[in-house]
TrEMBL record, chain A:
<feature type="domain" description="LUD">
    <location>
        <begin position="8"/>
        <end position="191"/>
    </location>
</feature>
<protein>
    <submittedName>
        <fullName>Lactate utilization protein</fullName>
    </submittedName>
</protein>
<dbReference type="InterPro" id="IPR037171">
    <property type="entry name" value="NagB/RpiA_transferase-like"/>
</dbReference>
<dbReference type="Pfam" id="PF02589">
    <property type="entry name" value="LUD_dom"/>
</dbReference>
<dbReference type="InterPro" id="IPR003741">
    <property type="entry name" value="LUD_dom"/>
</dbReference>
<dbReference type="InterPro" id="IPR024185">
    <property type="entry name" value="FTHF_cligase-like_sf"/>
</dbReference>
Automatic annotation (TrEMBL), chain B:
<keyword id="KW-0411">Iron-sulfur</keyword>
<dbReference type="Pfam" id="PF11870">
    <property type="entry name" value="LutB_C"/>
</dbReference>
<dbReference type="InterPro" id="IPR037171">
    <property type="entry name" value="NagB/RpiA_transferase-like"/>
</dbReference>
<dbReference type="InterPro" id="IPR017900">
    <property type="entry name" value="4Fe4S_Fe_S_CS"/>
</dbReference>
<dbReference type="InterPro" id="IPR009051">
    <property type="entry name" value="Helical_ferredxn"/>
</dbReference>
<dbReference type="InterPro" id="IPR003741">
    <property type="entry name" value="LUD_dom"/>
</dbReference>
<dbReference type="Pfam" id="PF02589">
    <property type="entry name" value="LUD_dom"/>
</dbReference>
<dbReference type="Pfam" id="PF13183">
    <property type="entry name" value="Fer4_8"/>
</dbReference>
<keyword id="KW-0813">Transport</keyword>
Length: 193, 483
């Protein structure tokens, strides 16, 4: 599917307006460079690993070939409780998304067996991978997409989450602070192909 | 049936004076409300499609309120089909009892909560504490006022009345109670970091979560939660048991209606297209998922709401709690939320508090805290006729003799004198006599009867002139005619 440049630019603008950051990549090596920088900047270690969930098989493979040993990719065969502990200690969480909306600068994640929301919630850094073709022009279109997906899938996901920026508060003296409960930094990695 | 609402039983002048003396609160509230009002106007101006959505949403929401009983039934069927439990609580106490029973049956030891006005309304925390079950508020502002044992001073900025030093003191005391390391300084960054790590442990440990709800979708059985902090995501993802307590009026008919209305709270409240996190719950978690509650209970709270249907006040049930009317109100900007004495402050609060309780609670609000400037009317995204309601409530209050006898006497006397030109003239000559008798040469300060006595104390009241303009005109005319 051809990618609409206008939509892409609008998404970038609005996402950054919501205090999110953007990377563009085309292939595996670039993703690995981006992630290596993020891992260094955020103190990834054995105790504070990277947790991953909800990526397409191709992208999951990109991450596997990165050869970073402190990476846990959620597998529905695994013990949920253990993954939860890893997420609680993790320094970076990586997820895919179901769709992104340009005009609201937002991404939408579905909680399913093979895609957990915890990597987007517990670590201080959330990286969401988006294929350029997943970006719809308006949030309204995204809501339609969600409705269709649920109808076609026969079941609604138990939880759906829309992210439009980092976790923030202005509860003390009206001053804006990022990263109160959820992530302080949100990165969108847009895969152009 | 009338609802039950907690309230501050100090009289209004006392609440007012306390508010006016709290400089921290007035400064922050003044700043926050003006900023929100500004960016709200801006974002609607630059998003014509969302202004169109807003108008559609108003019509749809009004219809949903008319169809409330059927839509609630549909919502309950949908979520129960997916294995959740639903309850209808007629009054505040019923909602509390249901929630307590759920907690007890699971032997809950720690409950975590995301922000919810309706749980303030039903005083859930107090009931849980009394039952020996600790409840932890996790919205930063709510957490602060929970430590301070206070109520929210703004729907969206509950701790706006406390500055960083006061917050640090609360956190220091909390840290020494919990034997954990205190915040590093009173910098807001450090205070927030303290709250993050302190509450993180409780998120992971809690065995029950409590949320409110921004919208319920009848067609799909969806509950929508909106936050900027992401704490509602923690509450819906982590504890094994989830209880959502939601006012019945939060219902919308279908997904299409949700699409029109879902961005309005963030647009009107904080001037953004969306808050940072919007979470939708459709049911308990499916086996094998990492997150989500094993058990989900939805308590739908009436507490005086149903009784407003088919009355002139029906549109009040469309409120989305965006806070725009608070931010726009010149009275709220001066006195903040506590002065109202109700969990619902601001223009919507002075309408809703007496209405939900059939005038049992704070019936003086519509008369005491409104200047009828209509700023709220302009601000409200749901086109709720707040000023009209305030006038109508004032009528009802007089008709039902809910004013104190001094107020009634004063207003009756005033009306008797000033409703005819002759009466007006008589009142002025009377005031002149009184002024002479009281020996006060300078002005007529002490001369205000009844409730106006206070009015005279805080204002420079001009002296009653020895001769009114009318008298002077009459004399001048007579003299001119004589010539
Ligand atoms: S009355 Fe209107 S402006 Fe006030 S909180 Fe409700 S929806 Fe917002």
């Amino acid at each position: 599917m051809a990618v609409d440049e206008g939509i892409l630019r609008r998404f970038e603008e609005e996402w950054q307006g919501n205090a999110g950051k953007i990377f563009h990549i085309v292939q595996a090596e670039e993703l690995q460079t981006v992630l290596t920088d993020l891992a260094d900047a955020n103190g990834v270690s054995d105790q504070n690993p990277i947790v991953v969930s909800g990526l397409s098989e191709k992208w999951a493979q990109w991450i596997r070939t990165w050869n970073m040993k402190q990476v846990y990719i959620w597998n529905p065969e695994d013990e949920a409780e253990e993954f939860r502990h890893r997420c609680a200690d993790a320094s970076v969480g990586i997820t895919g998304c179901a769709w992104a909306a340009a005009d609201a600068g937002s991404v939408c994640l579905y909680s399913q067996k093979d895609s957990s929301l915890l990597p987007s919630l517990l670590p201080p850094v959330h990286v969401v991978m988006i294929s350029a073709a997943q970006i719809v022009s308006t949030f309204r279109e995204g809501m339609d997409r969600l409705y269709r997906d649920a109808r076609q899938g026969g079941e609604w996901p138990a939880l759906v989450k829309i992210v439009a920026g980092p976790s923030m508060t202005a509860d003390i003296e009206g001053q804006l602070i990022l990263g109160v409960h959820g992530p302080r930094d949100v990165y969108a990695v847009i895969v152009d192909n | 049936m009338a609802g039950q609402l907690p309230y501050d039983n100090r009289p209004w002048p006392e609440r007012r004076d306390a508010a006016l003396q709290n400089q921290t609160m007035r400064h922050t509230i003044g700043f926050v409300t003006r900023r929100f009002t500004l960016i709200k106007g801006e974002i609607y101006r630059t998003s014509p499609d969302l202004e169109a959505s807003r108008k559609t949403a108003v019509g749809q929401k009004r219809q949903a309120i008319r169809d409330l009983p059927q839509l609630l039934e549909q919502f309950r069927n949908q979520v129960e089909r997916r294995g959740a439990h639903t309850y209808l609580a007629a009054q505040a106490q019923d909602a509390v009892d249901i929630a307590l029973n759920i907690a007890r049956s699971h032997q809950a030891e720690l409950v975590i909560k995301s922000k919810s006005m309706v749980t303030e309304e039903i005083e859930l925390n107090q009931a849980f504490e009394k039952a020996g079950i600790p409840v932890r508020e996790t919205d930063l502002g709510e957490y602060i006022i929970q430590l301070a044992k206070e109520r929210p001073s703004h729907i969206l900025a509950p701790a706006a009345h406390r500055n960083r030093h006061q917050v640090e003191e609360l956190f220091q005391a909390d840290a020494s109670r919990e034997k954990i390391s205190p915040p590093q300084s009173d910098e807001i960054e450090d205070l927030t970091r303290y709250a993050r790590s302190r509450l993180r442990q409780e998120f992971l440990r809690a065995d029950m979560g409590v949320t409110g709800g921004n919208f319920l979708v009848a067609e799909t059985g969806t509950l929508v939660l909106i936050t900027n902090e992401g704490n509602a995501d923690m509450v819906t993802s982590l504890p094994p048991v989830l209880v959502s307590i939601v006012g019945v009026e939060k219902i919308v008919r279908d997904w299409a209606s949700l699409t029109e209305i879902i961005q309005q709270p963030a647009m009107s409240g904080i001037g953004r297209h969306l808050s940072s996190y919007t979470t939708m719950i459709q049911g308990p978690k499916s086996p094998g998922s990492v997150e989500g509650p094993r058990e989900w209970h939805v308590i739908l709270v009436d507490n005086g709401r149903m009784a407003l249907r088919d009355t002139e006040f029906e549109d009040v049930l469309s409120c989305i709690r965006c806070g725009a009317c608070l931010n726009a109100c010149p009275v709220f900007r001066e006195v903040g939320g506590h002065a109202y004495g109700s969990v619902y402050p601001g223009p919507i609060g002075i309408v809703e508090t007496p209405l939900l309780t059939d005038f049992q609670v704070l019936p003086e609000l519509p008369s005491a805290l409104c200047t009828l400037c209509h700023a709220c009317q302009e601000a409200c995204p749901m086109d709720i006729a707040l000023p009209d309601h305030i006038i109508s409530l004032r009528h009802t209050i007089v008709k039902r003799h809910l004013n104190s006898s001094t107020v009634n006497w004063t207003l009756r006397t005033w009306a008797r004198f000033w409703s005819t030109p002759g009466g007006y003239r008589r009142s002025i000559s009377l005031a002149r006599v009184m002024q002479r008798l009281s020996g006060k040469k300078r002005n007529a300060q002490g001369l205000f009867p009844g409730i106006f006595a206070g009015w005279g104390q805080t204002r420079e009241i001009p002296q009653v002139a020895p001769k009114t303009f009318h008298e002077w005109w009459q004399e001048w005319k007579e003299r001119a005619e004589e010539k």
